[in-house]
UniProtKB/TrEMBL annotation, chain A:
<keyword id="KW-0812">Transmembrane</keyword>
<feature type="transmembrane region" description="Helical">
    <location>
        <begin position="99"/>
        <end position="123"/>
    </location>
</feature>
<dbReference type="InterPro" id="IPR035906">
    <property type="entry name" value="MetI-like_sf"/>
</dbReference>
<keyword id="KW-1133">Transmembrane helix</keyword>
<protein>
    <submittedName>
        <fullName>ABC transporter permease</fullName>
    </submittedName>
</protein>
<dbReference type="Pfam" id="PF00528">
    <property type="entry name" value="BPD_transp_1"/>
</dbReference>
<comment type="similarity">
    <text>Belongs to the binding-protein-dependent transport system permease family.</text>
</comment>
<feature type="transmembrane region" description="Helical">
    <location>
        <begin position="182"/>
        <end position="204"/>
    </location>
</feature>
<dbReference type="Pfam" id="PF19300">
    <property type="entry name" value="BPD_transp_1_N"/>
</dbReference>
<feature type="transmembrane region" description="Helical">
    <location>
        <begin position="242"/>
        <end position="264"/>
    </location>
</feature>
<feature type="domain" description="ABC transmembrane type-1">
    <location>
        <begin position="95"/>
        <end position="307"/>
    </location>
</feature>
<feature type="transmembrane region" description="Helical">
    <location>
        <begin position="144"/>
        <end position="162"/>
    </location>
</feature>
<dbReference type="GO" id="GO:0005886">
    <property type="term" value="C:plasma membrane"/>
</dbReference>
<keyword id="KW-0813">Transport</keyword>
<dbReference type="InterPro" id="IPR000515">
    <property type="entry name" value="MetI-like"/>
</dbReference>
<feature type="transmembrane region" description="Helical">
    <location>
        <begin position="284"/>
        <end position="306"/>
    </location>
</feature>
<feature type="transmembrane region" description="Helical">
    <location>
        <begin position="9"/>
        <end position="30"/>
    </location>
</feature>
Length: 317, 532
């Protein structure tokens, strides 16, 4: 198991390198000047050139990349062009907020998704199955930013029960679990949970349905095993695939919530990313994308290792 | 005993009343910016940055009178009580500074502070030079050649050439505290968290990207501008729907630029929409390069006559002032142009036919537009409206749509640059608050792009002479007259496609009282109270 883990870990290094190259190069392709955000609109050509030189943007791209990766190796992600603040400080503050939101959404989505999926798989081709399938398709299909706006209109504007924006009172950014903070979390977390509920439910339904028709299940029943014990075997067989889907969903929840974070003004990595794109803030954009991409890579590693731990067949393949 | 009780009761009432006089609540503002504007002095985030973080925490030597909603703002003394140009040498200016002014950290304000602040943005070798502030301030004072403190309260500024627009330029330059910068280890990043100006508000709390909290500066030099509120909180809310929801759900009391389609719902729920004319315009800046169809004055006038500006109003929820010229009709520099900017389709068609166009011979033009951007209002539907209008007079418009930051780059590059791909028009909105930003910078032949912001490469000796007169007319009344003549030429020659002016709409809770919306990009927040 340990050797599998280290082998898998070694594979991460070239992937991370590739990710860093792509992160650096992709943001260079977009048109526009990264210094636009900080220069007055009527800055002269001389002033623009001076600023470009001051930020090292006049150097050839490979040189810029070498400087960037060299600084990264020393833990320096550079400074945001738009704000002048260290990128690491900006990104990790935002990632912490996104992680809080992602974990909360996962806590809502995964148990509900698993429960609904298992229910539909067990009672396949019944009214209940069709209802769960319809529900999960709706969950996946409804644009979640639209759902977010609807929830805000109902629960914030009309009922006044929950706040529509921000991560907490007084600009608080910490993981505090009192009601004042949690009430800010509810609407975005519920909105964000809808898609993974649908995806997890559909995955688990398919897995559970297939496994229940397998010969070994009939054999277990034939041996006189109780329904509960059989279902435990089914769950264990479905776990590794379900885990893989949930791991990727957690990655999606962390990095793919730009619209939700924008709708709710949630100060997370998605919101930061959208601002960085809007401002063409290259260092911030590169830093945010890199951290999120590496999070995906880390999630894949964790999922792979966890799958191997659950299902020994994976190690052998 | 009774007297004692009465005395205690009277004290209690007095204390309550005193408390009521000072405790006027908290104003929470939802800004359109994605981040708190730069807090160290010279702000970023355009007009909104200056509005909320500039003229709140800081002062400039000369300021805008923001007390009236009924007339255009004019210059008034700020940290300088008076200023004058040398009768013999028109490049030499003397500023008399206000005595008794202190920064929030308690340090006195003197002429040495002005010199220190100018070095902060102009002298790269100076200890306090800050590239971020320089980027925002340097281009605002192009006239300044040198400066020195004559004594504690007298400052001398020498300009590169005679330039009567210097007072307007000085409104941009905000004074930070040298003592505070030294106390913060001469580190502007530390100053950002604990800034110190002389303005009516002190920055108390600053959480990047989330909020800034300001409290009144009780020792402010202008007693009429000591804030009545307990606190003002700035919250970046760049997404229009999130801003509207925050206001409607009571999380903020004031939002900038509500989305037009949310305004009826807000008004229906008792929220107040405040708006006023202000120095802003929404135009098509026209190419005057050789071969441009806009070189024909008949075509320019026809295009201006082809747009039903009143008909455009419903598109913006009524929140616009139809253009009658380049400057808003209420501007003190509007003058009396002979060409009337109005909707007259027949006249427009006649002009086009005179220019050789008609149903069988259309004119094709290409226009650069952006889907969004600072001050751009609703650029896509508005441009489609203009496209439809021009189609009525046989002008076929092809759009080149680019993202806002790229649009700024193309604007800086100018009409002759290959990056604009032959476009002969660019839809750009302008801050037109002073003679330079309002008129000179767009058409001065010395500022032809990429050396300046004369995008269309316009060059006209008569206009150059007018610009020269603006700069050499030091009597403000006479200067206003030249500015009026200049604007008349703008309109009479139909130098732009003049469409509309924004009205700076903002929505606020009915609890917000005492706000007077000046005809200016900046506003005075000191008069505001909140009914709790």
């Amino acid at each position: 198991m340990l050797s599998y883990f280290f082998r898998r870990l070694l594979l991460v290094l070239p992937v991370a390198f590739g990710v860093s190259v792509i992160c650096f190069m992709l943001v260079q392709i977009a048109p526009g000047d990264p210094l636009t955000a900080i220069m007055p609109v009527d800055a002269t050509a001389e002033e623009q050139a001076a600023m470009r030189a001051a930020y090292g943007l006049d150097k050839p791209l490979p040189v810029q990349y070498a400087i960037w990766i060299g600084n990264l190796a020393q833990g320096d992600m550079g400074k945001s062009i738009a704000t002048g603040r260290p990128v690491a400080q900006e990104v990790f503050g935002a990632v912490q907020n996104s992680l809080l939101l992602a974990v909360s959404a996962a806590v809502i989505a995964f148990p509900i998704g698993i429960f609904l999926g298992f229910l539909a798989g067990y009672f396949r081709d019944t009214l209940l199955d069709r209802a769960v399938t319809a529900l999960s398709i709706t969950g996946v299909s409804v644009p979640n930013y639209w759902l977010g706006i609807v929830l805000v209109i109902i629960f914030s504007v009309n009922l006044g029960w929950l706040p529509s924006m921000g991560a907490g009172p007084g600009g608080s950014q910490s993981w505090e679990w009192d009601w004042l903070h949690m009430r800010h979390l509810i609407l975005p977390a519920v909105t964000l949970a809808v898609v993974p509920i649908g995806i997890v439910a559909r995955t688990v339904r398919a897995l559970a349905g297939d496994i229940l028709t397998m010969d070994f299940v009939q054999a277990l029943y034939a041996k006189g095993m109780s329904r509960g014990d059989v279902l435990r075997h089914v769950a264990r067989n479905a776990a590794s695939t379900a885990l893989s889907v949930m791991g990727l969903q957690l990655g999606y929840l962390l990095g793919g919530s730009i619209l939700i974070e924008t709708v709710f003004n949630w100060p997370g990595s998605g919101f930061l990313l959208s601002n960085a794109i809007f401002q063409r803030d290259l260092p911030l954009l590169q830093g945010t994308i890199l951290v999120l991409a590496l999070f995906f890579v880390a999630m894949n590693l964790i999922v792979d290792v966890a799958q191997a731990a659950i299902d020994p067949r994976i190690k052998r393949t | 005993m009774l007297r004692l009780k009465a005395g205690i009761a009277a004290l209690a009432v007095a204390a309550t009343m005193a408390s009521a006089a000072w405790a006027q609540g908290t104003l929470r503002v939802g800004m359109t910016a994605a981040d708190i504007p730069l807090t160290t002095g010279q702000t970023d985030q355009g007009g909104e940055g200056m509005r909320f973080m500039g003229y709140t925490v800081y002062d400039s030597l000369i300021e805008w009178d923001l007390t009236s909603a009924d007339k255009p703002s004019v210059l008034i003394p700020g940290l300088a009580t008076e200023w004058s140009v040398d009768a013999e040498d028109k490049t030499k200016w003397t500023f008399k500074l206000r005595e008794g002014v202190t920064f929030h950290d308690g340090a006195p304000f003197t002429a040495a502070d002005v010199v220190w602040n100018l070095d902060k943005i102009l002298v790269e070798g100076s200890e306090q030079y800050d590239p971020r502030q320089a980027a925002q301030g340097k281009s605002r004072i192009p006239a300044v050649a040198s400066y020195k403190a004559i004594d504690d309260y007298t400052l001398e500024i020498v300009t590169k050439e005679p330039d009567a627009t210097l007072p307007y330029q000085m409104t941009w330059i905000l004074m930070s505290s040298k003592a505070n910068w030294e106390a913060m280890d001469k580190d502007w990043e530390k100053v950002a968290g604990h800034p110190s100006g002389t303005g009516p508000w002190k920055l108390e709390t600053f959480v990047p990207r989330e909020r800034a909290e300001m409290v009144p500066f009780d020792a402010y030099w202008d007693e009429t501008r000591i804030p009545k509120l307990d606190k003002m909180v700035l919250i970046p809310l760049p997404e229009p729907n999130a801003r509207s929801a925050a206001l409607l759900s009571g999380q903020v009391d004031w939002i900038e630029a509500p989305a037009p389609d949310t305004i009826p719902a807000m008004q229906g729920n008792g929220f107040v929409i405040s708006s006023n004319a202000y120095p802003h315009n929404w135009t098509w800046h026209l190419s005057r390069l050789e071969g441009s169809p806009w070189n024909d004055i008949r075509v320019r006038k026809a295009a201006n006559l082809a747009i039903d500006r009143e008909g455009m109003m419903p598109l913006l929820g009524g929140l616009m002032v139809p253009a009658k010229g380049f400057l808003p009709p209420s501007s003190q520099w509007f003058g009396n142009p002979t060409f009337e900017v109005k909707y007259d389709l027949d006249a427009a068609k006649a002009l086009m036919e005179e220019a050789g166009y008609g149903p069988d011979k259309h004119l094709a033009v290409k226009a650069l537009i952006s889907p969004s951007g600072s001050g751009q209002m609703l650029p896509l539907p508005m441009n489609e409206y203009v496209q439809q209008s021009l189609a009525e007079i046989w002008i076929d418009v092809e759009f080149m749509v680019v993202e806002w930051n790229q649009m700024i780059n193309l604007w800086r590059a100018g009409a002759a640059d290959p990056s604009v791909d032959g476009a002969q028009s660019i839809n750009f909105t302008y801050f037109i608050q002073d003679p330079f930003t309002g008129l000179i910078r767009h058409l001065d032949e010395n500022l032809i792009a990429p050396n300046g912001t004369n995008w269309g490469h316009y060059s006209d000796p008569e206009m150059q002479e007018l610009f020269k007169q603006i700069k050499t007319t030091f009597d403000p009344v006479a200067q206003d007259e030249v500015l009026r003549k200049t604007h008349e030429k703008y309109v009479n020659d139909a130098l732009f496609l003049m469409v509309t002016h924004d009205v700076a709409p903002r929505a606020m809770s009915p609890k917000v009282k005492g706000f007077v919306q000046a005809q200016n990009w900046y506003q005075n927040f000191s008069s505001i109270t909140i009914d709790e």
